[in-house]
Amino acid sequence: MRISYNPLWKMLIDKGMNKKDLREKSGISTASIAKLGKGENITTDVLLRICEALDCNINDIMETLPDELAESEETK
Known about the structure:
Radius of gyration: 12 Å
Structural class: mainly alpha
Mean pLDDT: 90
Strand order of the largest sheet: 1-2
Number of domains: 1
Shape: globular
Order of helices and strands: EHHHHEH
CATH superfamily: lambda repressor-like DNA-binding domains
CATH topology: 434 Repressor (Amino-terminal Domain)
């Protein structure tokens, strides 16, 4: 299984925000934003700060995907 942050990116679009806005509002580092963009693991502290900034739950910004589906998402 792999983690996908696609729900986060969709939420940002819906709210008219970009990655810089998210970084400024949540106070997370540019390195964390880069990891999110690459679908890499980040700490729960960072996820919770994002949720607090966006007033949402953790399941609103991430999802788990089976390995096969995650691989096909990466090639898009």
